[in-house]
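[Archive record]
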Amino acid sequence: MKRTSTISRPIEIVFRFIGMWPDSAYSTFCWLIYMTTMVIVQYFQYAYVLAHFDLSDIPLLMDCLGLTLAYTLAFVKLFVLWWKRRTFSYILTTMNRDWKDCVINDSYTSTMMSVADLSHRCTNVMISINALAAFFLSIGEHLLQSMNDADRVDNNSRQLPIKMEFPFDVSKSPVFECFLAGQFLYELLLASVVGMVNALLVSFVLHVSGQIDIMRQDLNEISNSKYDSSTSLIVIKGLIHRHQKIITLSENIESLFCYIALMQLLWNTLVICCTGFVIVIVSNGRLLPRIFDEEYLSFVLLQTIRADEGATTLIKSISFYIAITLEVFILCFVGEFLSAKSKTINDAVYESFWYNMPPTDSRILLFMLLRSQKRLTITAGKVVDLTLEGFTSIMRASASYVSVLNATY
């Protein structure tokens, strides 16, 4: 199937469903319904955290707090995207205009098609990883726990995968099954939305990368062909215009995601710390859930159930840890990729045969050379650039916090 956009169809469908896509029908109504649902879920999540806030039971606190903070981050990210919806609409309009130019000029089509294919593959991978994480956080954990329901004395001890504090009992059938199905659908949709936000950033940056490759392609045509002042000057003017479009598009992408990136780095450092701490203590066999009473269970049965709970907690925490770490890595890698790609413009201009041109034409390339020395980048709150070095710093900081918690627990 021939690609006609860098952004894949699933991204557009999900964003239309939650009312974030420009010019979609009933967008404000859909956005209000979805955000109101998130607020209600967050209320019951924080109610659970406050009701079970006990520093003597740090594993339980870290387990529920990590997921709650992650959902809060998703809410804030969607709110920022809605707040900057004009910038979002402008970026999409610019990308559609670039694809129309590719239809006019067939020499650009192959470059943009390869970029679009790569963008769609990355989107599918991120959706798959987030969907697996959502499965293990909800249905997967419940299925593993249900294997031991026959050995349990009290079925009222059943807990929902997403910890919430309700003013009524939800452990009895069929209320428990209804809430379980609702949490699964909510978790799956939220994980898809979070994955789509990351995939959207990747698609934007890959589109800029494709435009840079086209610009380098035009520079190579000037260098490889015999210089003709009349035709080459037209190409140079087109290069300047394309370079300015790339800079403007990159600045709009940075404006759209800079504050999202800042919250992602700060917030995910805490979430990675909480989840990593749970993984460490479960791996060491020190997570002893307190949801069972030893007065009603024998010691052997209690240890068996605790081991099963530790296994389910470990699987859930590892899948969640991978998904959260991947979010931070994608942001830092995309920033590093955009910076490295922008430097290739400088190299392509320098390697062109500018010395064979008349001084009046070579001076134009000189200005382009000077402008391309300022690399394109994505910042976290306009404070620090997103780089792979920053990703390693985040992982080191999270590991340090986990080691401190592990030593004090």
Observations:
- The chain has one domain: 9-408.
- Residues 229-283 form the longest helix (55 residues).
- The beta strands are 379-380, 384-385.
- Residues 9-408 form one domain.
